[in-house]
C-alpha cells in the first residue's frame, strides 16, 4: 500500500524572517547576514530573508534593507522579502537591483480570517487584496518584463485564534483572488499550529477543486507536533512545496513559550528517509542553525537537530 | 480523498515504565505511585507500570514490587509489568493476586536485531523466545484459566543502532514466534526513533500479509519528530493500538539528550482532532505529567503539553 508522493519537494526556508520575527531576542544584523549566507550554501532554492514591515511594530525586522543589501547572492537561490504595502515595496525596490532576475522574490500576506487580518495588518482581507493590486500594478509598470517571483501568504488557513475553525471555501476564495492578481504561488498557513491530518484533507479537498496543486504550498507550524503528519497527508494530494524554519526557529505568536515553525531539519530528515529529493543538505542547514543558537534564549526546537547534536555531529 | 482510519484507537501508556526507565533522574516510589494513580483516572485502559528487571542493571525500576503493590486498581484498566525471565515472573506473580483478572498484564520483550537483543538482554532472539516459552508454560500451569493479558515487544523493528536497517521479514518471523507462544498482541518498536512513513509502509506490508492488524501495536519514538506522521501512515493499514508516554517522558537510549517516546498528549491532540475515539481525557493525562515534571531534569518533551501550559491550562 505505497502512498503516492511527489518525487521532489521544494523547501521554502523561512527561518530568517518568520523564525526570527517571532523570537523575542534581537539578533545582530551581521549574524543574520551570516545565517542567510550559510543557508545559501545548503542547496536551498528559496530563502525568505526579511520583511519590510513597520520597524516600530516589528523591531526584529528593522534592518531589512541592510540584510538584503549585504547577503551573498548564490546562483539559483531566490531571496524573498515580505511586502505589506506600497512603502515596503519602494524600500524593497531600492534593494532589488543587486539581485539577478531569477533571484528576486516578494511575498504578499493576508489571511483567511477577517479578524486575524485586521488585528495583524489593520485592514480587512478585501483592503489587503486592493493594496496588493496597487503593488502588482506598480510592479508591471516599473519592472515590465523583469517581474520578481511573487508569493502570496494566507494565514489562519485552518484555524484562527479569534474566529476558530475556518471554512475551506473561504481559503479557496482568498486563494483565487491572489492568483488573479498574478501571484505565482500561494502558501496556506496553519498559523497557530492547530491542524491535524483531517483538517489538511478538508482544506485541500476544497482548494484543489479549482487550483493546481503545483501553485499551493503549505506553511505548517509544529505547535502540537502534528506538522510532519500534515506534510505526509498533503503530499498524498500532490502538494510538493513546504515552508519550514531552520532549527525550528520561531514561536507561536498566540502561545508564547510554545513551539513554532516546522523545523527544516525535521522535514529534511523525513523527506530524505522517504527518498524524496530536495537538493538540500541537512548537515549544512543544521550548521546554519547552530550559528544562530547563541542568540536565541531557549534551545532550538528541531528534534532532528537535537538528535544530531546528541550524536556529536 | 478521505483516509480510511480506525474509528477508535487504544493507547498503551508506557510513561511509568519505558518513560521513567530512560530518564536519568530517580523518581521517588511514592511519586511513581501517585503518577500511575493519576493516569488511572484519565480513561486510559492500558498502563505499563514497571519492569521486573535486574535492579543492578536498571536501578530506576528497583521498586517494581512496591509500585505494583501500592497503586490503586481502577476498573477496566490493565496494569502491565515487563518480565525478562523466570525470576521476574516469580516476583510479578507475588503481586498479581491483588489485581482482578482483567487488570493483569505482562509484557515479554525481545528484538528484531540479534545484536540489539544480545546487548540488551545478554541472549540471542532464539534464547529469549525459549525463556518466554518457559514463562508461558508456567503461566498455563500456575494460572490455568486465569491467564493475564500477554504482550510481546519487538525492539528495533525498523532500524538497529548496531545493525542498521532491519528487514521487515525478520520482524514478521519474530512476531509469528511470539504469537505462537500465545501472546495476545505484539508491539513493534521503533526503538531509536528513526522511522519515516515509508519505513512503516514496508514494515506493515510484510507483517500484515500473515498477521491480523488487530494483533499489532506500534511503539514509536519521536526522536526526529516523525512519530505522528508514522501513526497516520499506520492507521491507513488498520493499526489501532499505539504506545505513548505521558509528557513524552523517556529519552532515546542510544542518543543521550535527544527526544524519546511519542508523547501521549501529542497523540491525543491529533486523534481528538481527527474525531478518532480513545476514551482518554487529554487534560487528565497532562495533569499526571505535571505531577512528575519536578523530578525530571529537563522540560517535558510533549509539544501539546507545552502549548497547554503556554495557554495557562
Describe the fold and architecture.
Two copies of one chain form a homodimer. By secondary structure, chain A is of the alpha/beta class. Chain A has one domain (10-310): Aldolase class I (TIM Barrel, Alpha-Beta Barrel), CATH 3.20.20. The first copy, chain A, is 41% helix and 18% strand. Chain A is built from twelve helices and twelve strands. The first copy, chain A, has helices spanning 15-21, 29-40, 64-70, 86-96, 114-121, 125-143, 168-180, 197-207, 227-235, 264-273, 282-293, 303-310; strands at residues 10-13, 46-51, 78-82, 104-111, 149-155, 159-160, 164-165, 185-190, 216-220, 241-244, 251-252, 255-259. In chain A, the strands form three sheets. In chain A, strands 1-2-3-4-5-8-9-10 form an eight-stranded parallel beta barrel, surrounded by eight helices. In chain A, strands 6-7 form a two-stranded antiparallel ribbon. In chain A, helix 4 (86-96) links the parallel strand 3 and strand 4. In chain A, helix 2 runs antiparallel to helix 11 (282-293). The longest helix of chain A is centred in the middle third of the chain and has 19 residues, at 125-143. Chain A is globular and about 50 Å long. Chain A starts with 9 loop residues before the first strand and ends with a helix. The mean pLDDT of chain A is 95. Chains A and B meet through helix 8, helix 9, strand 12, helix 10 and helix 12 of A and helix 8, helix 9, strand 12, helix 10 and helix 12 of B.
Amino acid at each position: 500500500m505505497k502512498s503516492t508522493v511527489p518525487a521532489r519537494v521544494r523547501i521554502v526556508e523561512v527561518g530568517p524572517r518568520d523564525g526570527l520575527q517571532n523570537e523575542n531576542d534581537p539578533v545582530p544584523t551581521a549574524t543574520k547576514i551570516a545565517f542567510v549566507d550559510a543557508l545559501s550554501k545548503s542547496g536551498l532554492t528559496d530563502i525568505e530573508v526579511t520583511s519590510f514591515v513597520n520597524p516600530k511594530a516589528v523591531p526584529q525586522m528593522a534592518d531589512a534593507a541592510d540584510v538584503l543589501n549585504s547577503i551573498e547572492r548564490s546562483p539559483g537561490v531566490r531571496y524573498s522579502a515580505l511586502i505589506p504595502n506600497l512603502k515596503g515595496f519602494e524600500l524593497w525596490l531600492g534593494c532589488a537591483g543587486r539581485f539577478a532576475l531569477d533571484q528576486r522574490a516578494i511575498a504578499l500576506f493576508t489571511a483567511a480570517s477577517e479578524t486575524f487580518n485586521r488585528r495583524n495588518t489593520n485592514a480587512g482581507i478585501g483592503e489587503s487584496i486592493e493594496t496588493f493590486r496597487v503593488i502588482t500594478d506598480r510592479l508591471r509598470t516599473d519592472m515590465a518584463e523583469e517581474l520578481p517571483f511573487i508569493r502570496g501568504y494566507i494565514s489562519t488557513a485552518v484555524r484562527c485564534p479569534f474566529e476558530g475553525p475556518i471554512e475551506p471555501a473561504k481559503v479557496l476564495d482568498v486563494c483565487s483572488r491572489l492568483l488573479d492578481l498574478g501571484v505565482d504561488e500561494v502558501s496556506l498557513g496553519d498559523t497557530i499550529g492547530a491542524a491535524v491530518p483531517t483538517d489538511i484533507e478538508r482544506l485541500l479537498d476544497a482548494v484543489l477543486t479549482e487550483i493546481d496543486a503545483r501553485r499551493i504550498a503549505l506553511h505548517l507550524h509544529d505547535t502540537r507536533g502534528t506538522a510532519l503528519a500534515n506534510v505526509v497527508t498533503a503530499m498524498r494530494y500532490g502538494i510538493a512545496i513546504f515552508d519550514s524554519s531552520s532549527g525550528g526557529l520561531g514561536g507561536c505568536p498566540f502561545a508564547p513559550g510554545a513551539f513554532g515553525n516546522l523545523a527544516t531539519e525535521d522535514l529534511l530528515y523525513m523527506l530524505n528517509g522517504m527518498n524524496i529529493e530536495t537538493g538540500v543538505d541537512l548537515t549544512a542547514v543544521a550548521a546554519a542553525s547552530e550559528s544562530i543558537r547563541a542568540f536565541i534564549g531557549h534551545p532550538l526546537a528541531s528534534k532532528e537537530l537535537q538528535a544530531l547534536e546528541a550524536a556529536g555531529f
